[in-house]
Amino acid sequence: MKKLFLILFVVFFISEHANCQQISISPEIDTRNDYTFDLLGKVGNKILAFRKKNKKYILNIYDKTLYRVSEKTISLEKKNTDIVSVVAGKNDFTVFYTLKKKNAIFLKAVKFNETGTKLDSTMLFQQKHFFSTKPFLSVKSRNKKIILIYRIIDNKEIEFTEFNIEKFKKIYYKKVKFKDVKFNNYYYRLVISNKGNIYLMFEKKPSIFSGSSHKIIINAFYPYSKKRKKTSKNIKVNTGHVNIVYDDENEVLNIAGIITKMYDVKAIGYFVYKLDENLLRKGYFKHYFKEKLLSDYYRLEIKKKKKYIRNLYIKNLELRNDGGLILVLEVKEIIKRKVNTFNNRQDLYSGDTDYIFGNIILISIHENGEEFWEKIIPKYQMSTNDYGIYSSFFIFKIPSSLKLLFNDEIKNKNQVIMYSVSPTGEIKRQSVFTTDMYKLNLSFNKCVQISNNKLIIPSYKKEKLKLVLVEL
Questions:
Q1: Domain count, the chain
Q2: Residue spans of beta strands (DSSP E) within 46-113
Q3: pLDDT at 17
Q4: Structural domain of residue 399, as residue ranges?
Q5: How confident is the model at residue 230 (pLDDT cuts 50, 70, 90)?
Q6: Which end of the chain is more exposed for a tag (fewer CB within 10 A), N or C?
Q7: What's the rounded Cα separation, in Å, for the pair 453 and 241?
Q8: Rounded to whole angstroms, how far apart are CA atoms 250 and 269?
Q9: 465 domain-assigned
């Protein structure tokens, strides 16, 4: 049954430095008893959001201006279902979920159109259920046509199920046991190409007890040929955060990591390791932060210059058309403040958690590893006990530039700031709009870009949800 809500359509214009943005705000939705929320973005001529409320799955259907919203209950199995992923296409969306029934578990996919009408369904697999607590996780190809659903069965075994969303067909299933790695002990990352090739990277930290070296291990799985390949590289530096991205245009796997000074929190540089589609080495580059970058960084911090930057991690690896990379780094720190209290003859620990998201560092490097430019975008966001959902930033991508949008401060009276970065490193700062007049608490972590000039930002405030459509 559909319920239709009409609300005053809010459109306002903000002009700054001869620039103008159009902002549309949706009706408010009560999110009490909501378990999950997926903003799907533009599907067909509608804007969709998928929610789990109590035991029901709800599809919120907005028109392209967010002026009208209707609500439809999506029919899956009545009980014991868990959503794995919801993937939006151009004119439809697909829900991947598990169903537990008696002593079996089923992995299923259902396709719906923009109004929530069921178009197709299929079962990916059925297995005996042994009450495993291991969750099903997923990664998507960059073109969003292929999804890999995986589950870590135990410390040395992983299960892959790959599905072509466009053809609505399972293309690969495999259980893999490893002899030389352990999921509990090693940091790992997964990525898939638009062809469906699977790349699983492990980072093995050095051990002073066993004498083992610091190593990157990459396993590749090729669903169509059923082949598997493996390579590894010794990394002769201490590393912090490591990330990977596959460049489909140039068929290159890029692995980038932060170089640290003894401890993971003190970053002093970065490395990039490049492999081709078949894991043949294309290059390994290592750079330490230049004096100018460190001077500029600590000038912004108004602190004495050091030879490192604390709490730096890789937010994104953005691909350049020429095969190069832009490393998008962000300062992030989580501080737990415990308070020891005494009650009923027992020690009780409680306290607050602070979330600090600081400056952004952009480093553009050519395909041959040579640095092109380095830039720092000043930012300081601090909040308490909110899991940092209003912090960090969103990268809006168009051919001529990257646009980074974020909340200037984490409070009710706040400005949305946008930095535009050109391919040659020129930066322009702009204030987009203010939030206090419209009672918005924007979460840029869940933004969706729907065109070259529009994005949708969810706003959460006191268990109320609004969607904000911004035309840049």
A1: 1
A2: 46-53, 56-62, 68-74, 81-88, 92-101, 104-113
A3: 37
A4: 1-29+390-472
A5: very high
A6: N
A7: 32
A8: 25
A9: yes
CA distance linking residue 364 with residue 387, whole number of Å: 30
Using CA atoms, how far residue 392 sits from 57, 96, 113, 406, in Å, is: 29, 28, 33, 7
> Tokens 């000074």 sit at which residue?
261
Q: What is the distance between the alpha carbons of residues 391 and 396, in angstroms, rounded to a whole number?
A: 16
Q: For residue 409, is it within any domain?
A: yes
Looking at residue 457, its pLDDT comes to 97
Strand pairing partners for 170?
Answer: 163
Within a domain: 3: yes
Residues 6+ apart with CB under 8 A from 392: 315, 330, 332, 357, 381, 406, 444, 445
What H or E segment, with its residue span, contains residue 294?
helix 291-301
C-alpha dihedral, 83 to 88 to 93 to 97, nearest 10°: -10
In-domain check, residue 412: yes
Residues 395-438 have pLDDT tens digits of 999 989 999 999 999 988 899 999 999 999 999 999 999 988 88
Percent of the chain with pLDDT over 90: 70
When mean pLDDT is compared across 14-18, 149-153, 429-433, the lowest value belongs to 14-18
CA atoms of 69 and 46, how far apart (whole Å): 10
Strands 394-398 and 169-177: unpaired
Residue 156 · residue 179 · CB < 8 Å: yes
